[in-house]
Recover the amino acids of this structure.
């Protein structure tokens, strides 16, 4: 059974120095040494050096994703253990220090890791812009590398548990993202708060999240409070054998409105995933090229890298 452990912590600008001993993140170092997560997502790092390499912060971990801005604010850093191999050219960091994304080879799997530090201001528009751009990057990377599992964590600064919060549009973007990529919210069942205001014990909210692909068969959460005003959130995920099971298609599914609407998109994406040009293009470019066209209208223009896909498509009816 394959297990991956993911830890996220808002460090509130605590110094991520080069020395392993002491410092105001010493308790976090101890926790990581004891729990040995595979992925560590730190938010609000406030590092204004884009060349910061994270050497010596956590023994046995390397820093490959580091989103910073020009001033000492925001910031997301993702540390992975030595078992992760970066897929060349997939790591991107936002200029504003609000999110980072990258893809890795890990235990024979492709895994996409995203780290997010959402805007702390009460602006739905500005917060939405951050998540809209992240979702676009995630879509592009998923199309590029194909089959992959995803883990996205961090301090979103959004109260997803409240129906009427002050960021409704941003909340909808996140929930649509979860649905589009068939993901789960690790803390959704218990909704345990992860942020507290000092000296006001009743002022608590769940702001820190770990979203994970539903291909993970089992997920458990551990919340630990330390010196920071945000809790340490630890997720342990188990990848079972259900990804290898043959899907069972019920007859009634073929007549549903959802299937009728989505079938053409599925065929389109399958074809473009194997085209020499469009397999690396963005979701937006694919939409612009095929919008308003029947599959047969653009299928002949494609240059497929896998000819079996062309032959298979000839035998099916046009959608």
């Amino acid at each position: 059974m394959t297990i991956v452990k993911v830890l996220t912590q808002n460090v509130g600008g605590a110094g991520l120095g080069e020395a392993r001993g002491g410092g105001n993140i010493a308790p976090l170092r101890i926790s990581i040494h004891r729990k040995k997560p595979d992925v560590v997502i730190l938010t609000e790092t406030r590092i204004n050096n884009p060349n910061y390499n994270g050497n010596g912060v956590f023994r046995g971990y390397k820093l490959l994703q580091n989103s910073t801005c020009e001033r000492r604010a925001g910031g997301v850093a993702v540390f992975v253990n030595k078992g992760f191999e970066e897929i060349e050219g997939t790591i991107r960091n936002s200029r504003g220090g609000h999110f980072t994304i990258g893809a890795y080879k890990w235990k024979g799997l492709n895994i996409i890791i995203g780290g997010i530090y959402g805007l702390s201001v009460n602006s739905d528009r500005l917060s939405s812009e951050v998540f809209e751009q992240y979702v676009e990057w995630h879509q592009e990377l998923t199309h590029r590398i194909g089959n992959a599992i995803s883990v996205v964590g961090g301090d979103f600064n959004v109260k997803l548990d409240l129906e009427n919060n002050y960021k409704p549009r941003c909340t909808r973007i996140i929930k649509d993202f979860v649905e589009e990529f068939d993901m789960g919210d690790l803390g959704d069942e218990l909704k345990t708060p992860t942020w507290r205001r000092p000296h006001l014990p009743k002022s608590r909210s769940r702001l820190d999240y770990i979203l994970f692909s539903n291909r993970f068969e089992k997920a458990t959460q551990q919340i630990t409070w330390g010196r920071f005003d945000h809790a340490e959130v630890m997720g342990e995920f188990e990848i079972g054998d259900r990804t290898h099971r043959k899907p069972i298609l019920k007859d009634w599914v073929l007549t549903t409105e959802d299937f009728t609407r989505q079938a053409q998109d599925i065929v389109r994406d399958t074809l473009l995933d194997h085209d020499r040009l469009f397999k690396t293009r963005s979701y937006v470019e694919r939409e612009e090229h095929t919008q308003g066209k029947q599959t047969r209208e653009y299928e002949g223009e494609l240059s497929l890298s896998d000819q079996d896909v062309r032959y298979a498509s000839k035998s099916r009816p046009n959608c």
Remarks:
- Residues 2-241 form a domain with the Deoxyribonuclease I; Chain A fold (CATH 3.60.10.10).
- Helices lie at 26-35, 124-145, 168-180, 257-273, 283-290, 295-299, 307-314.
